[in-house]
Design brief:
Blueprint: E1 4-8, H1 16-25, E2 30-36, E3 55-59, E4 62-65, H2 69-80, E5 87-94, H3 106-116, E6 121-126, H4 129-132, H5 135-151, E7 157-163, E8 171-173, E9 179-180, E10 186-189, E11 195-198, E12 205-206, H6 213-218, E13 222-228, H7 234-240, H8 243-254
Helix pairs in contact: 1-5, 2-3
Bound molecules: manganese (II) ion.
Residues 10-11, 41, 93-94, 107 line the site of manganese (II) ion (MN).
């Protein structure tokens, strides 16, 4: 018997990419859509803890939540779904989630939430959907999901999938690329003479690294990057253990 699949996104319950992903996964399991009631892009891994969440059932196995993508996954797994899902799929995001940008992404964070709750999870993003639509990303998402359901994933690991515009040349397994942060924050004056700022202005530039998700997508390939939720840098931890003695000596001197 096929399991339950939780589909969510950060562009909101009415987004075309969400419909495309739900349709692509339909024959792999019983798809439940639990998604934010409005756009929640770039909210990262935020959870709503200081107000109640409300759920609107819009159809059979289709729910809108007045919260973040991570709220939707948490509430879906721990509350709304009839059983623990075999897969959390987030997307298809309208636009790329590549390299360092994954730390801001509501789409990727929803998959992180699924991973934290012990469910195999993937995030899917379509670069420039305005031109070609979601057909390319839907096909890649279905293929990756089918494989993932058979093979599983290592502990604390999720997949981040990005698909270029147009039919992809194929799939490349990649690592995260890195942004070049060069653009300054834009400062302007408001009509009352007080400064205001825009961050994230201008188009991003990226380090050109062979094997990165950026490089794959820029050359027309779909990229699949395994992400690990253990953010500890174990090498640095060994190197920094020498700090303990000095820090403890300083704290001891200051003790009353
Ligand atoms: Mn989005």
């Amino acid at each position: 018997m096929p399991g339950v699949i939780l589909v969510t996104n950060d562009d909101g319950i009415h987004a075309a990419g969400l419909r495309a992903l739900a349709a692509a996964l339909e024959d792999l399991g019983e798809v439940y859509v639990v998604a934010p009631d409005r756009e929640q892009s770039a909210v990262g891994h935020a959870l709503t803890l200081h107000r109640p969440l409300r759920v609107d059932q819009l159809g059979e196995r289709r729910f809108a939540v007045n919260g973040t993508p991570s709220d939707c996954v948490n509430l879906g797994i721990l509350g709304l779904l009839p059983e623990t899902p075999v897969l959390v799929a987030s997307g298809i995001n309208h636009g790329a989630n590549l390299g360092d940008d994954v730390t801001y992404s509501g789409t990727v964070s929803a998959a992180m939430e699924g991973t934290l709750l012990g469910v195999a999870s993937m995030a899917v993003s379509q670069v420039d959907p305005a031109g070609e639509g979601f057909a390319g990303a839907a096909a890649v998402a279905r293929a990756v999901a089918a494989r993932l359901l058979v093979e599983g994933l290592p502990a604390q690991t999720l997949l981040n999938v990005n698909v270029p515009p147009g039919p992809p040349a194929g799939v490349r397994m990649t690592r995260l690329g890195h942004r070049v942060y060069s653009a300054k924050a834009v400062q302007e004056m408001d009509p009352r003479g007080r400064p205001y700022y825009w961050i994230g202005a201008g188009s991003p530039t990226w380090e050109k690294e062979e094997g990165s998700d950026i490089a794959a997508v820029h050359s027309g390939w779909a990229s699949v990057t395994p992400l690990h939720l253990d953010l500890t840098h174990h090498g640095a931890l060994r190197g920094l253990s020498g700090w303990e003695g000095g820090l403890n000596a300083v704290l001891k001197q200051r003790a009353p």
